[in-house]
Amino acid sequence: MKLQKKKSSIGQWICHIILLILLFLVMFPIFLMIIKSFKTIEQEIHNPFAVTVPFYFKNYSLAWKYISGYILNTVLIAVLCTLGIVTVSSSMAYGFTRYQFPFKNVLFMLVLSLMMIPAVLTLVPQYCMVKDFGLINTRLGVILPTIAGSLPFGTFLLKTFFSGLPGDLFEAADIDGANSITKFSKIALPLSTPILATLGLTSFLNSWNDLIWPQLVLRKESLQTLTIAMTSFTTNYYSTTHSYAVPLAGYVIASAPLIILFMLTSKQFIRGLTSGAIKM
Question: Which domain range does residue 211 map to?
């Protein structure tokens, strides 16, 4: 018994040490980003890892002047992508769960197989389609392919959850004369709030952080997103000043909405992950 307790305690210590190392690897770059965003150029060169006082807030005002014009574009694209992904994925998942139609399982497997295709392989075909439809330099050119590319995972996630909903609820609704839209909107969606919040939050984060596809489609500066603007701003600013202080302040500003959103929805996000894992 004593040997088993010693082995278990040693194993716990090893796990804790590994977790602390991983936590350090994740948090240290964020810590550096924050402390360097409050430094002057001289402080960044001579004391790159130290916390310097007083904080130099002018970096944030300079960064805000540059990126403030791109925030609205980013919010608009991220919100529309999120709404589209959640709406279409939930409709598809409900159809695959509650309806019987020919080749249903085959079609669902085809949808799942799309998740196996690397996103890089679809860039050129998607770009050609967007160009043929005249959607280059439009927000729709970013939004529609983003929604389409996220549907397989969203459909799979929600179908797994919908399959675990009690069938008696839908049978009772049938007896009461409820139609399909009523059952979907009044029963399925309210019971699926945690998993919908999880899908919505991950979709919003992915849309907010996306760089490659918006950079291909949005060539007009007035339509560009934060990720594109920050990439070019970092390169140009460092080439002239050899400092990352102001760009890092911009990254802190760009990250703030995501942190606030996650703090507000963290309970729903965790509930969605745990409930989805249990049903799987």
Answer: 58-279
- How many domains are there within the chain? 1
CA–CA distance from 143 to each of 71, 140, 239 (Å)? 16, 5, 33
16 located within any domain: no
Task: Check which CATH number belongs to the domain holding 64 and give it.
Answer: 1.10.3720.10
**Residue 96's closest CA among 197, 194, 188?**
188
Angle, to 10 degrees, between the axis of helix 104-113 and the axis of helix 58-98? Answer: 160
197-218 b/e with 16+ CB inside 10 Å = b?
bbbbbbbbebbbebeebbbbbb
Reduced to 3 states (helix: H, G, I; strand: E, B; else coil), residue 164 is coil
Please report the sign of the dihedral spanned by the C-alpha atoms of residue 157, residue 158, residue 161, residue 162. negative
Rounded to the nearest 10 degrees, the angle between the axes of helix 193-209 and helix 226-241 is 40
Distances (CA, A) of 80 to 77, 87, 156, 208, 254: 5, 10, 21, 11, 18
Report the C-alpha gap between 253 and 60 in whole angstroms. 8
Local structure of residue 220 (DSSP, 8 states)? S
User: What confidence tens digit (pLDDT) does each residue in 17-53 have?
Assistant: 999 999 999 999 999 999 999 998 888 888 888 888 8
- How far is C-alpha 270 from the chain's CA centre? 15
Q: Which residues, in sequence order, are CB contacts of 74 under 8 Å at separation 6+?
A: 208, 225, 226, 227
pLDDT digits 0-9 by tens, 82-119: 999 999 999 999 999 988 889 999 999 999 999 888 88
Mean pLDDT across the chain: 89
Q: Rounded to 5 degrees, what angle do the CA atoms 117, 198, 83 make? A: 75
27 in any annotated domain: no
Distance, CA of 29 to CA of 38 (rounded, Å): 15
